[in-house]
Amino acid sequence: MNIPNSLTVLRILLIPVMVAVFYMPFEGHLLAAAGIFAVAAVTDWFDGYLARRLGQMTPFGAFLDPVADKLMVAVALVLLVERHNDLLFTLAACVIIGREIVVSALREWMAELGKRTSVAVSMIGKVKTGFQMVSIVVLLAVDAQRDGSEILALGVLLLYIAAALTIWSMWQYLRAAQQVLAEDPSQ
């Protein structure tokens, strides 16, 4: 297995570790869970960079990398929804997770049509991912009962920005798919 694929597998293996640490009753467990998520998020960027730089892009890596990302984010958001128990927070998490499912299915469908590049990752998707990852790290690290409300407010604000960017990026993907369908309505 090449280095980028190994990093992707590591990211998947870190998910249950993050969950276990999140619930462990020791001082600093939330900060440790946030650190694990942050390491996984950095490996997401790093494995893509290495795959391109070392010429080690594989079909397996192309499949597994987005799966690892979506699993990592969805699991972290579920942990956070449980802790924050708030309608708006839950809706933001649902928007983010729902968009990932819709866009993954859309990419699969476009690949079947031979038009996968029409729904390639966009810049707004990358910006959304940045806000999303930072917000999750902040929100995992903050104990709402003990820590300052300013840090918690920042994490929540970043999550809401990520959710808004999520809707915008999903709209862009759906418009791109609509253009492909307009060119060939038999699809």
Automatic annotation (TrEMBL):
Keyword Hydrolase: no
Record-linked InterPro entries: CDP-alcohol_PTase-I, CDP-OH_P_trans, CDP-OH_PTrfase_TM_dom, CDP_ALCOHOL_P_TRANSF_CS, Phosphatidylglycerol_P_synth
Predominant subcellular localization, coarse grouping: membrane
Keywords on record: Lipid biosynthesis, Lipid metabolism, Membrane, Phospholipid biosynthesis, Phospholipid metabolism, Transferase, Transmembrane, Transmembrane helix
Pathway(s) annotated for this protein in UniProt: Phospholipid metabolism; phosphatidylglycerol biosynthesis; phosphatidylglycerol from CDP-diacylglycerol: step 1/2
Transmembrane segments: 7-24, 30-50, 62-81, 87-106, 127-145, 151-171
EC numbers for this chain: 2.7.8.5
GO MF terms, alphabetically ordered: CDP-diacylglycerol-glycerol-3-phosphate 3-phosphatidyltransferase activity
Membrane topology: Multi-pass membrane protein
Location of this chain's protein in the cell: Membrane
Catalytic reaction list: a CDP-1,2-diacyl-sn-glycerol + sn-glycerol 3-phosphate = a 1,2-diacyl-sn-glycero-3-phospho-(1'-sn-glycero-3'-phosphate) + CMP + H(+)
Cited Gene3D superfamilies: 1.20.120.1760
Family the UniProt entry places it in: Belongs to the CDP-alcohol phosphatidyltransferase class-I family.
Name recorded for this polypeptide: CDP-diacylglycerol--glycerol-3-phosphate 3-phosphatidyltransferase
Organism of provenance: Congregibacter variabilis
